[in-house]
Task: structure prediction
Amino acid sequence: MAQTNYNPFHAAQLQFDNAAEMLDLDQATRDLLRNPIREFHFHIPVRMDDGEVKIFQGYRVQHNDARGPAKGGLRFHPQETIDTVRALSMWMTWKTAVADLPLGGGKGGVVCDPHNLSATEQERICRGWVRQVYKNIGPNTDIPAPDVMTNSQHMLWMLDEYEVLAGARYPGAITGKPVGMGGSLGRTEATGYGVIITVREALKELDISPESTTASIQGFGNVSQYAIELYQQMGGKVVCVSAWDQQDQTSYAFKKDDGIDLYELRAITNSFGGIDKEKAAELGYSVLPGDKWLEQEVDILIPAALENQITEENVSSISSKVKILAEGANGPTTPAASKIIDEKGIFTIPDFLANAGGVVCSYFEQVQSNMNYFWEKEEVLSKLDTKMTSSYIAVSNFALENDMPMRDAAYAISVDRVAQACHDRGWV
Ligand code: NAD
Result:
Protein backbone atom coordinates (compact mmCIF):
# COMPACT_ATOMS: atom_id res chain seq x y z
CA MET A 1 0.00 0.00 0.00
CA ALA A 2 2.74 2.48 0.96
CA GLN A 3 4.78 4.16 -1.79
CA THR A 4 8.42 3.11 -1.42
CA ASN A 5 9.83 6.44 -2.65
CA TYR A 6 7.67 8.45 -0.26
CA ASN A 7 9.69 11.01 1.67
CA PRO A 8 7.75 12.42 4.65
CA PHE A 9 9.97 15.50 4.89
CA HIS A 10 9.23 16.43 1.28
CA ALA A 11 5.51 15.98 2.02
CA ALA A 12 5.83 18.18 5.13
CA GLN A 13 7.71 20.85 3.15
CA LEU A 14 5.08 20.79 0.42
CA GLN A 15 2.34 21.31 3.00
CA PHE A 16 4.33 24.16 4.52
CA ASP A 17 4.92 25.76 1.09
CA ASN A 18 1.13 25.78 0.51
CA ALA A 19 0.61 27.48 3.86
CA ALA A 20 3.39 30.00 3.12
CA GLU A 21 1.64 30.87 -0.16
CA MET A 22 -1.71 31.28 1.59
CA LEU A 23 -0.17 33.60 4.18
CA ASP A 24 2.07 35.36 1.67
CA LEU A 25 5.10 34.89 3.94
CA ASP A 26 8.32 36.73 3.11
CA GLN A 27 11.27 34.73 1.77
CA ALA A 28 13.34 34.75 4.98
CA THR A 29 10.45 33.36 7.04
CA ARG A 30 9.88 30.67 4.41
CA ASP A 31 13.57 29.73 4.42
CA LEU A 32 13.60 29.58 8.21
CA LEU A 33 10.44 27.51 8.64
CA ARG A 34 10.76 25.02 5.80
CA ASN A 35 13.85 23.52 7.52
CA PRO A 36 14.66 22.63 11.14
CA ILE A 37 16.44 25.34 13.07
CA ARG A 38 18.79 22.81 14.72
CA GLU A 39 19.77 19.19 14.15
CA PHE A 40 21.94 16.85 16.20
CA HIS A 41 23.29 13.70 14.54
CA PHE A 42 25.42 11.42 16.67
CA HIS A 43 26.58 7.86 17.27
CA ILE A 44 25.90 6.10 20.55
CA PRO A 45 28.37 3.41 21.65
CA VAL A 46 26.51 0.75 23.62
CA ARG A 47 28.00 -2.27 25.38
CA MET A 48 25.71 -5.17 24.56
CA ASP A 49 24.93 -7.99 27.00
CA ASP A 50 27.50 -10.26 25.31
CA GLY A 51 30.30 -7.73 25.98
CA GLU A 52 30.56 -6.48 22.36
CA VAL A 53 30.20 -2.74 21.70
CA LYS A 54 27.68 -1.70 19.03
CA ILE A 55 27.28 1.79 17.62
CA PHE A 56 23.74 3.16 17.14
CA GLN A 57 22.84 6.19 15.02
CA GLY A 58 20.85 8.78 17.00
CA TYR A 59 19.12 12.04 16.14
CA ARG A 60 17.43 15.00 17.77
CA VAL A 61 15.88 17.63 15.53
CA GLN A 62 14.48 20.93 16.84
CA HIS A 63 12.36 22.34 14.06
CA ASN A 64 11.40 25.59 15.78
CA ASP A 65 11.37 26.98 19.31
CA ALA A 66 10.17 30.55 18.79
CA ARG A 67 6.97 29.93 20.81
CA GLY A 68 8.70 28.00 23.62
CA PRO A 69 10.93 25.01 24.30
CA ALA A 70 10.89 22.34 21.59
CA LYS A 71 8.61 19.39 22.37
CA GLY A 72 8.28 15.99 20.74
CA GLY A 73 8.85 12.28 21.00
CA LEU A 74 11.80 9.95 20.64
CA ARG A 75 11.30 6.94 18.35
CA PHE A 76 13.15 3.62 18.27
CA HIS A 77 12.83 2.19 14.77
CA PRO A 78 15.06 0.03 12.52
CA GLN A 79 14.09 2.10 9.45
CA GLU A 80 14.39 5.50 11.14
CA THR A 81 15.75 8.19 8.81
CA ILE A 82 16.75 11.79 9.37
CA ASP A 83 14.01 12.88 6.95
CA THR A 84 11.31 11.10 8.98
CA VAL A 85 12.57 12.82 12.13
CA ARG A 86 12.69 16.20 10.33
CA ALA A 87 9.11 15.82 9.07
CA LEU A 88 7.82 14.77 12.47
CA SER A 89 9.63 17.67 14.17
CA MET A 90 8.02 20.13 11.75
CA TRP A 91 4.58 18.60 12.33
CA MET A 92 5.19 19.00 16.10
CA THR A 93 5.77 22.74 15.62
CA TRP A 94 2.39 23.06 13.89
CA LYS A 95 0.72 20.80 16.46
CA THR A 96 1.85 22.78 19.52
CA ALA A 97 0.94 26.01 17.70
CA VAL A 98 -2.55 24.87 16.64
CA ALA A 99 -3.26 23.86 20.24
CA ASP A 100 -1.83 27.24 21.31
CA LEU A 101 0.67 25.68 23.72
CA PRO A 102 3.74 27.74 24.73
CA LEU A 103 6.02 25.18 23.05
CA GLY A 104 7.86 24.55 19.79
CA GLY A 105 8.44 21.35 17.85
CA GLY A 106 11.12 18.68 18.01
CA LYS A 107 11.58 14.97 17.41
CA GLY A 108 14.26 12.37 18.01
CA GLY A 109 15.15 8.88 16.96
CA VAL A 110 17.52 5.99 17.32
CA VAL A 111 18.00 3.48 14.51
CA CYS A 112 17.38 0.24 16.40
CA ASP A 113 14.82 -2.53 16.79
CA PRO A 114 13.74 -3.00 20.41
CA HIS A 115 12.26 -6.41 19.48
CA ASN A 116 15.88 -7.64 19.31
CA LEU A 117 17.30 -5.79 22.33
CA SER A 118 17.25 -6.79 26.01
CA ALA A 119 15.89 -4.35 28.59
CA THR A 120 19.41 -3.52 29.80
CA GLU A 121 20.59 -2.83 26.24
CA GLN A 122 17.61 -0.51 25.72
CA GLU A 123 18.45 1.22 29.01
CA ARG A 124 22.03 1.83 27.81
CA ILE A 125 20.74 3.26 24.50
CA CYS A 126 18.44 5.65 26.41
CA ARG A 127 21.24 6.79 28.71
CA GLY A 128 23.69 7.07 25.77
CA TRP A 129 21.19 9.18 23.80
CA VAL A 130 20.82 11.61 26.72
CA ARG A 131 24.61 11.88 27.16
CA GLN A 132 24.90 12.97 23.52
CA VAL A 133 22.27 15.73 23.71
CA TYR A 134 22.35 16.61 27.40
CA LYS A 135 23.45 20.21 26.80
CA ASN A 136 20.76 20.77 24.18
CA ILE A 137 17.67 19.40 25.94
CA GLY A 138 16.00 20.30 29.24
CA PRO A 139 12.82 21.76 30.78
CA ASN A 140 13.48 25.18 29.23
CA THR A 141 15.08 23.98 26.00
CA ASP A 142 13.63 20.80 24.53
CA ILE A 143 11.46 18.23 26.30
CA PRO A 144 11.50 14.68 24.84
CA ALA A 145 8.60 12.23 25.25
CA PRO A 146 7.78 8.64 24.21
CA ASP A 147 6.82 7.78 20.65
CA VAL A 148 6.94 4.72 18.40
CA MET A 149 8.46 1.79 20.35
CA THR A 150 9.51 3.89 23.35
CA ASN A 151 7.56 3.93 26.61
CA SER A 152 7.43 5.36 30.13
CA GLN A 153 10.27 3.12 31.34
CA HIS A 154 12.55 4.45 28.60
CA MET A 155 11.60 8.01 29.64
CA LEU A 156 12.44 7.33 33.29
CA TRP A 157 15.89 5.95 32.38
CA MET A 158 16.47 9.04 30.24
CA LEU A 159 15.32 11.38 32.99
CA ASP A 160 17.54 9.60 35.50
CA GLU A 161 20.57 10.03 33.23
CA TYR A 162 19.69 13.70 32.69
CA GLU A 163 19.41 14.28 36.45
CA VAL A 164 22.69 12.46 37.15
CA LEU A 165 24.46 14.78 34.70
CA ALA A 166 22.62 17.87 36.02
CA GLY A 167 23.24 16.96 39.65
CA ALA A 168 19.64 17.83 40.60
CA ARG A 169 16.04 16.79 40.03
CA TYR A 170 14.40 18.19 36.88
CA PRO A 171 11.13 16.24 36.53
CA GLY A 172 9.92 18.65 33.83
CA ALA A 173 12.83 17.71 31.54
CA ILE A 174 11.04 14.72 30.02
CA THR A 175 7.37 13.75 29.81
CA GLY A 176 5.60 10.42 29.41
CA LYS A 177 7.05 9.26 32.72
CA PRO A 178 5.30 6.47 34.69
CA VAL A 179 2.39 7.62 36.85
CA GLY A 180 3.80 7.87 40.41
CA MET A 181 7.21 8.90 39.02
CA GLY A 182 6.12 12.25 37.62
CA GLY A 183 3.74 11.00 34.93
CA SER A 184 0.30 12.54 34.47
CA LEU A 185 -2.93 10.68 34.94
CA GLY A 186 -4.93 10.69 31.70
CA ARG A 187 -1.87 10.66 29.40
CA THR A 188 -2.61 7.10 28.20
CA GLU A 189 -6.11 8.07 27.11
CA ALA A 190 -5.27 11.60 25.92
CA THR A 191 -4.52 11.13 22.21
CA GLY A 192 -7.39 8.73 21.45
CA TYR A 193 -9.87 10.74 23.52
CA GLY A 194 -8.63 13.93 21.85
CA VAL A 195 -9.33 12.47 18.40
CA ILE A 196 -12.92 11.76 19.41
CA ILE A 197 -13.41 15.18 21.02
CA THR A 198 -12.63 16.65 17.58
CA VAL A 199 -14.96 14.10 15.92
CA ARG A 200 -17.70 15.10 18.39
CA GLU A 201 -17.27 18.76 17.42
CA ALA A 202 -17.25 17.91 13.70
CA LEU A 203 -20.46 15.89 14.07
CA LYS A 204 -22.06 18.87 15.83
CA GLU A 205 -20.97 21.13 12.98
CA LEU A 206 -22.35 18.73 10.36
CA ASP A 207 -25.54 18.27 12.41
CA ILE A 208 -25.14 14.49 12.73
CA SER A 209 -25.92 12.67 15.97
CA PRO A 210 -23.06 10.39 17.12
CA GLU A 211 -25.54 7.58 17.91
CA SER A 212 -26.45 7.32 14.24
CA THR A 213 -22.85 6.87 13.06
CA THR A 214 -20.47 4.00 12.33
CA ALA A 215 -16.67 4.04 12.06
CA SER A 216 -13.77 2.01 10.69
CA ILE A 217 -10.32 2.39 12.23
CA GLN A 218 -6.82 1.48 11.06
CA GLY A 219 -4.67 0.28 13.96
CA PHE A 220 -5.55 -1.12 17.37
CA GLY A 221 -2.84 0.45 19.54
CA ASN A 222 -2.89 3.26 22.08
CA VAL A 223 -4.59 5.91 19.93
CA SER A 224 -7.14 3.56 18.37
CA GLN A 225 -8.22 1.78 21.57
CA TYR A 226 -8.94 4.98 23.50
CA ALA A 227 -10.59 6.59 20.49
CA ILE A 228 -12.90 3.56 20.32
CA GLU A 229 -13.62 3.79 24.06
CA LEU A 230 -14.80 7.41 23.95
CA TYR A 231 -16.57 7.04 20.59
CA GLN A 232 -18.57 4.08 21.94
CA GLN A 233 -19.40 6.06 25.09
CA MET A 234 -20.83 8.72 22.73
CA GLY A 235 -23.04 6.03 21.19
CA GLY A 236 -21.08 5.40 17.97
CA LYS A 237 -20.51 1.92 16.53
CA VAL A 238 -17.08 0.73 15.30
CA VAL A 239 -17.57 -2.02 12.71
CA CYS A 240 -13.98 -2.62 11.61
CA VAL A 241 -10.43 -2.29 12.98
CA SER A 242 -7.16 -3.37 11.43
CA ALA A 243 -3.81 -4.35 12.92
CA TRP A 244 -0.34 -5.45 11.90
CA ASP A 245 0.47 -9.16 12.19
CA GLN A 246 4.13 -9.51 13.19
CA GLN A 247 4.27 -13.21 12.33
CA ASP A 248 2.79 -12.92 8.82
CA GLN A 249 4.39 -9.50 8.19
CA THR A 250 1.09 -8.16 6.88
CA SER A 251 -2.02 -6.47 8.23
CA TYR A 252 -5.55 -7.80 8.73
CA ALA A 253 -8.92 -6.10 9.18
CA PHE A 254 -11.38 -7.44 11.76
CA LYS A 255 -15.01 -6.81 11.02
CA LYS A 256 -18.30 -7.25 12.89
CA ASP A 257 -21.38 -5.61 11.38
CA ASP A 258 -23.12 -5.22 14.72
CA GLY A 259 -20.03 -3.55 16.21
CA ILE A 260 -16.70 -4.74 17.59
CA ASP A 261 -16.34 -5.36 21.32
CA LEU A 262 -13.37 -3.26 22.49
CA TYR A 263 -12.68 -5.22 25.65
CA GLU A 264 -13.04 -8.63 23.99
CA LEU A 265 -10.56 -7.60 21.26
CA ARG A 266 -8.19 -6.02 23.78
CA ALA A 267 -8.01 -9.38 25.59
CA ILE A 268 -6.58 -11.02 22.43
CA THR A 269 -4.18 -8.17 21.53
CA ASN A 270 -0.44 -8.12 22.30
CA SER A 271 1.50 -5.16 23.69
CA PHE A 272 2.37 -3.97 20.13
CA GLY A 273 -1.33 -3.74 19.16
CA GLY A 274 -1.34 -6.98 17.14
CA ILE A 275 -4.65 -8.91 17.25
CA ASP A 276 -4.64 -12.74 17.40
CA LYS A 277 -6.47 -13.60 14.15
CA GLU A 278 -7.39 -17.20 15.04
CA LYS A 279 -8.99 -16.13 18.33
CA ALA A 280 -10.75 -13.22 16.56
CA ALA A 281 -12.25 -15.65 14.04
CA GLU A 282 -13.44 -17.88 16.92
CA LEU A 283 -15.15 -14.81 18.42
CA GLY A 284 -17.10 -14.31 15.19
CA TYR A 285 -15.04 -11.58 13.48
CA SER A 286 -14.56 -11.68 9.72
CA VAL A 287 -10.78 -11.60 9.19
CA LEU A 288 -10.11 -9.65 5.98
CA PRO A 289 -7.04 -8.29 4.17
CA GLY A 290 -5.67 -5.22 6.03
CA ASP A 291 -6.62 -2.71 3.31
CA LYS A 292 -10.33 -3.46 3.81
CA TRP A 293 -10.59 -1.05 6.74
CA LEU A 294 -10.55 1.77 4.18
CA GLU A 295 -13.35 0.34 2.02
CA GLN A 296 -16.05 0.11 4.69
CA GLU A 297 -19.40 1.82 4.19
CA VAL A 298 -19.15 3.89 7.34
CA ASP A 299 -19.62 7.54 8.31
CA ILE A 300 -16.19 8.00 9.89
CA LEU A 301 -12.73 6.74 8.94
CA ILE A 302 -9.94 7.00 11.50
CA PRO A 303 -6.43 6.08 10.33
CA ALA A 304 -4.59 5.51 13.64
CA ALA A 305 -1.63 3.32 12.70
CA LEU A 306 1.13 5.04 10.72
CA GLU A 307 2.00 7.54 8.02
CA ASN A 308 1.43 7.31 4.23
CA GLN A 309 -1.60 5.00 4.32
CA ILE A 310 -4.17 6.85 2.18
CA THR A 311 -2.54 7.52 -1.17
CA GLU A 312 -3.48 8.33 -4.76
CA GLU A 313 -3.49 4.56 -5.40
CA ASN A 314 -6.16 3.61 -2.84
CA VAL A 315 -8.12 6.82 -2.20
CA SER A 316 -10.76 5.80 -4.77
CA SER A 317 -11.72 2.79 -2.62
CA ILE A 318 -13.22 5.10 0.05
CA SER A 319 -17.01 4.68 0.12
CA SER A 320 -19.23 7.60 -0.90
CA LYS A 321 -21.01 7.14 2.47
CA VAL A 322 -17.95 8.44 4.39
CA LYS A 323 -18.47 11.92 5.83
CA ILE A 324 -15.52 12.43 8.17
CA LEU A 325 -11.83 11.50 8.02
CA ALA A 326 -10.24 11.97 11.45
CA GLU A 327 -6.48 11.54 11.22
CA GLY A 328 -5.33 9.87 14.45
CA ALA A 329 -1.91 8.94 13.01
CA ASN A 330 0.71 11.47 11.92
CA GLY A 331 0.76 12.02 8.17
CA PRO A 332 -1.60 9.13 7.20
CA THR A 333 -2.81 10.89 4.03
CA THR A 334 -0.49 12.00 1.23
CA PRO A 335 -0.99 15.57 -0.04
CA ALA A 336 -2.29 14.25 -3.42
CA ALA A 337 -4.80 11.91 -1.74
CA SER A 338 -5.88 14.71 0.58
CA LYS A 339 -6.80 16.88 -2.40
CA ILE A 340 -8.99 14.10 -3.82
CA ILE A 341 -10.64 13.60 -0.41
CA ASP A 342 -11.52 17.32 -0.31
CA GLU A 343 -12.99 17.05 -3.82
CA LYS A 344 -15.12 14.07 -2.68
CA GLY A 345 -16.58 16.38 -0.02
CA ILE A 346 -15.24 14.37 2.92
CA PHE A 347 -14.67 16.53 6.00
CA THR A 348 -11.05 16.04 7.15
CA ILE A 349 -9.89 16.70 10.69
CA PRO A 350 -6.15 17.00 9.98
CA ASP A 351 -3.61 14.99 11.97
CA PHE A 352 -1.93 17.77 13.89
CA LEU A 353 -5.31 18.97 15.18
CA ALA A 354 -6.99 15.55 15.63
CA ASN A 355 -4.12 13.90 17.52
CA ALA A 356 -2.92 16.97 19.48
CA GLY A 357 -4.41 15.49 22.70
CA GLY A 358 -1.13 13.66 23.33
CA VAL A 359 1.02 16.76 23.36
CA VAL A 360 -1.63 18.76 25.21
CA CYS A 361 -1.48 16.20 28.02
CA SER A 362 2.34 16.09 27.82
CA TYR A 363 2.26 19.84 28.37
CA PHE A 364 -0.02 19.27 31.39
CA GLU A 365 2.50 16.71 32.67
CA GLN A 366 5.33 19.20 32.30
CA VAL A 367 3.36 21.86 34.16
CA GLN A 368 2.51 19.41 36.97
CA SER A 369 6.12 18.18 37.15
CA ASN A 370 7.52 21.70 37.33
CA MET A 371 5.06 22.56 40.12
CA ASN A 372 5.52 19.14 41.75
CA TYR A 373 1.75 19.14 42.25
CA PHE A 374 -0.38 16.57 40.44
CA TRP A 375 -4.00 16.82 39.33
CA GLU A 376 -6.78 14.24 39.57
CA LYS A 377 -7.55 12.36 36.35
CA GLU A 378 -10.93 14.11 35.98
CA GLU A 379 -9.19 17.49 36.08
CA VAL A 380 -6.67 16.44 33.41
CA LEU A 381 -9.38 15.07 31.12
CA SER A 382 -11.61 18.09 31.60
CA LYS A 383 -8.72 20.46 30.75
CA LEU A 384 -7.94 18.24 27.73
CA ASP A 385 -11.54 18.57 26.52
CA THR A 386 -11.45 22.36 26.93
CA LYS A 387 -8.17 22.67 24.99
CA MET A 388 -9.13 20.29 22.18
CA THR A 389 -12.55 21.88 21.78
CA SER A 390 -11.20 25.43 21.63
CA SER A 391 -8.48 24.37 19.15
CA TYR A 392 -11.08 22.68 16.96
CA ILE A 393 -13.42 25.68 17.07
CA ALA A 394 -10.63 28.13 16.14
CA VAL A 395 -9.74 26.02 13.07
CA SER A 396 -13.35 25.40 12.09
CA ASN A 397 -14.24 29.12 12.34
CA PHE A 398 -11.24 30.04 10.22
CA ALA A 399 -12.17 27.39 7.62
CA LEU A 400 -15.77 28.65 7.44
CA GLU A 401 -14.78 32.33 7.28
CA ASN A 402 -12.25 31.70 4.50
CA ASP A 403 -14.14 28.91 2.71
CA MET A 404 -11.23 26.48 2.89
CA PRO A 405 -10.66 22.87 4.04
CA MET A 406 -9.86 22.27 7.70
CA ARG A 407 -6.27 21.23 6.89
CA ASP A 408 -5.56 24.53 5.15
CA ALA A 409 -7.17 26.43 8.02
CA ALA A 410 -5.13 24.52 10.62
CA TYR A 411 -1.95 25.23 8.66
CA ALA A 412 -2.83 28.91 8.24
CA ILE A 413 -3.43 29.36 11.98
CA SER A 414 -0.37 27.45 13.18
CA VAL A 415 2.14 28.69 10.60
CA ASP A 416 0.93 32.25 11.19
CA ARG A 417 1.40 31.87 14.96
CA VAL A 418 4.94 30.52 14.55
CA ALA A 419 5.89 33.09 11.88
CA GLN A 420 4.56 35.84 14.14
CA ALA A 421 6.67 34.57 17.07
CA CYS A 422 9.77 34.57 14.82
CA HIS A 423 8.98 38.14 13.72
CA ASP A 424 8.26 39.31 17.27
CA ARG A 425 11.61 37.93 18.44
CA GLY A 426 13.30 39.83 15.65
CA TRP A 427 14.57 36.68 13.90
CA VAL A 428 13.12 37.52 10.49
P1 NAD B 1 0.81 1.79 18.70
O1 NAD B 1 2.15 1.23 18.42
O2 NAD B 1 0.24 1.70 20.09
O3 NAD B 1 -0.28 1.11 17.73
C1 NAD B 1 -0.11 1.04 16.35
C2 NAD B 1 -1.19 0.13 15.79
O4 NAD B 1 -1.11 0.16 14.37
C3 NAD B 1 -1.04 -1.33 16.20
O5 NAD B 1 -2.32 -1.88 16.44
C4 NAD B 1 -0.41 -1.97 14.97
O6 NAD B 1 -0.75 -3.36 14.85
C5 NAD B 1 -1.10 -1.17 13.89
N1 NAD B 1 -0.43 -1.20 12.59
C6 NAD B 1 0.88 -1.02 12.31
N2 NAD B 1 1.09 -1.13 10.99
C7 NAD B 1 -0.12 -1.36 10.44
C8 NAD B 1 -0.58 -1.57 9.10
N3 NAD B 1 0.26 -1.55 8.07
N4 NAD B 1 -1.90 -1.78 8.91
C9 NAD B 1 -2.76 -1.81 9.94
N5 NAD B 1 -2.38 -1.63 11.21
C10 NAD B 1 -1.09 -1.41 11.44
O7 NAD B 1 0.87 3.30 18.20
P2 NAD B 1 -0.02 4.53 18.66
O8 NAD B 1 0.63 5.17 19.83
O9 NAD B 1 -1.44 4.12 18.76
O10 NAD B 1 0.21 5.53 17.43
C11 NAD B 1 -0.48 5.38 16.22
C12 NAD B 1 -0.23 6.60 15.35
O11 NAD B 1 -0.63 7.77 16.04
C13 NAD B 1 1.23 6.86 14.94
O12 NAD B 1 1.22 7.50 13.67
C14 NAD B 1 1.70 7.85 15.99
O13 NAD B 1 2.81 8.62 15.53
C15 NAD B 1 0.46 8.69 16.11
N6 NAD B 1 0.37 9.44 17.37
C16 NAD B 1 0.40 8.82 18.55
C17 NAD B 1 0.30 9.55 19.72
C18 NAD B 1 0.27 8.89 21.06
O14 NAD B 1 0.13 9.61 22.06
N7 NAD B 1 0.34 7.57 21.18
C19 NAD B 1 0.19 10.95 19.65
C20 NAD B 1 0.13 11.58 18.41
C21 NAD B 1 0.22 10.80 17.27
